[in-house]
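Just scan my protein:

——
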Amino acid sequence: MKVFVSPGDTGPCGYYRLIWPARAAAWHEEVEIADDRYIGWRMDDYINYLTKPHADVVVIQRPSNQTTVDAVPRLRARGIAVVVDMDDDLSSVHPDNAAYYWAQEFNDYAMKACAQASLVTVTTEALAKRYAPHGRVRILPNCVPASYLKIPHRDSGLVGWGGALRSHPNDLDVLGDSIANLIAAGVDFKVVGPKGGLGRALKLEKEPFATDGVPLDYWPTELSKIGIGIAPLALTEFNAAKSRLRPLEYSALGVPWVASPTADYQKFHALGVGRLASSPEEWESELWGLVINRHLRDELADAGRELAKANTIEANASQWIEAWSDATKNA
C-alpha cells in the first residue's frame, strides 16, 4: 500500500496527527510526506502532485481551501482512497480564540471534504459525530513520541501550565482564584508558553513566570520541568471534542497532573492516572494535596509513564495503517 500524507501545517497538529504517525508507519508501508500545503495551486497541478507517487491512499489534514475540497472526488474517481483527518471542532471555536477569524470558513471546507472522503479520521467520539455522520470514520486517539518517555523529570512542588491564552482564551477561568491562593501560600507557579495576560486570567497581582513561545523540538523538555501539571478546560462544545493530549504529554514525561472533567480527560483519568477538578475549590484542594505529598506525586508519575508506554505513536502505528487500509475499501 502506497500512502501520500499531506499535513495541514508544520506545527504541533501537523506533527502529532500526520507527520510523526506517517514516519512510524513508513517502517511497515510505503509512505511519503508532503513538505508544504500547496495552497493556491491550480487544480490540475494539485491533483498531479497528490498522485505523483501513484498512491493508493492520500491523507489530507484539515482541508482549508476549495482546491482541496474539489480534489477529493477527483482523486476518488481515479481509484485513490482519500482520508481526511480532523483534530478540532472548528464549528465551535471561541470568539476570543486566535483561530476564530478563519475557523468557520475552514469548517465549511472540512465538512464538504469529509462528506466526500473515503474515510474520516478523528481524535474523539464528538469529532466523529461532527465530521462523519455517514459512518465512514475511525477514531485514532492522539499519541506521543516514544522519546518523551526517556526525558528525565525531577520531582518538585512547582505547579505549571503548558499552553497559550491565544488558543485557550477562557480556559483558565475554571481555576478561579485557586492559583492565586496557592501562590499566596508559598507554592511556585510557571507557564510553559507565551507571556502576557496571564496575571489577569489567573487573578494574580502580577504576571507569573512564563517561558514565552517554545519550539516543538524543545516543548517536551520544557514541559518536563514542571513538578505538577494542570490542564484546565472550560466545559464548552469546543472542548468537549478535545482529546487527552495534554494529560498524556504530562504522563509520558513523568509529570503528575490535575485536569478538568471533559469527556476525553475523564476517560484517560479512569485508566488510573492524574486527578480531576470541577470547581476552583477542587482545583486548590487537589493541587495542594500534590504539593505536600511527595509519595502521591511519585505514585501518579509512575502510573502515568507506565500508561504512556502503550500510548506512543510508535506502539500504535498499526492503527493508522489499518485505517488507511480500510479507506481503500471505500475508494
Remarks:
- The longest helix spans residues 100-116.
